[in-house]
Amino acid sequence: MARSTVAMIVRPLVFALLVLFAAGGPLLAHISVARSQTRPATLDVAIVREPLSFAVHALEFYLRKPVELASSFDPLVSFSAHGVRPEAALSALALSGGARLSERRHKLVIETAGPVVTLDVKDEEVHVILRSLKQQCGIRNLIVDPGVSGNGTFLLRDVPCRTAFNVVFGMMGLRATYEPNSVVTVSIRR
């Protein structure tokens, strides 16, 4: 009797753990950044399957300058290093995310190459234009305010996503709010 009771409890737990392990993403993701014990001016960094923006924010505490992430998407990155300078860790992290690190006056800027947009429409409805931008830029969640309407004409060839969104939004009187995890909210500019 006791064995069957244990089996009834253990089987569902094992099944639940297997399902969580198969899902993989959130279970295996993590960020760890700490001062190195062996070399005081360096860091030990371990980042596994985290959005680039989260990883940058974890490193930002150890950098001399603030970091700006100029990107229309947020790729998942993995990076590991021991005894590395914070600036070198940031540079390597940017490369692992397919981005470029540049230094501007009072900040570091990470610019991701990312996808580009080709848009050739004449007097097209705004929802069709936004849907095309969403697909080409790999945006998973595009939330459009019910008051957004109108038509537009655009001819864009291989334009970075952020620029394409800014051009379309500027011409159509719209504004966007970029949220983490590929969420873009579109509303009327007031």
Model description:
The chain has 190 residues and is an alpha+beta fold. It has helices spanning 2-23, 25-28, 52-60, 86-96, 126-137, 161-172; strands spanning 30-35, 43-51, 67-70, 76-84, 99-104, 107-112, 116-125, 141-144, 151-160, 174-179, 183-188. A hairpin with a 7-residue loop joins β1 (30-35) and β2. The longest helix is centred in the N-terminal third of the chain and has 22 residues, at 2-23. The radius of gyration is 22 Å and the shape is globular. The N and C termini lie far apart (70 Å).
- Portion in beta strands: 35-45%
The number of distinct helices, counting runs of at least 4 residues, comes to: 6
- Sequence of strands across the biggest β-sheet: 1-2-4
- Tell me the radius of gyration: 22 Å
User: Which series of helices and strands comes N to C?
Assistant: HHEEHEEHEEEHEEHEE
Low-confidence segments, given as residue ranges, are 17-27
Helix content: 25-40%
N-to-C terminal Cα separation, in Å?
A: 70 Å
Overall 3D geometry? Answer: globular
Q: Name the average pLDDT.
A: 79
Query: Care to count the β-strands?
Result: 11
For the report, how would you describe the main beta sheet? Answer: 3 strands, antiparallel
Which class of secondary structure composition applies to the elements? alpha+beta
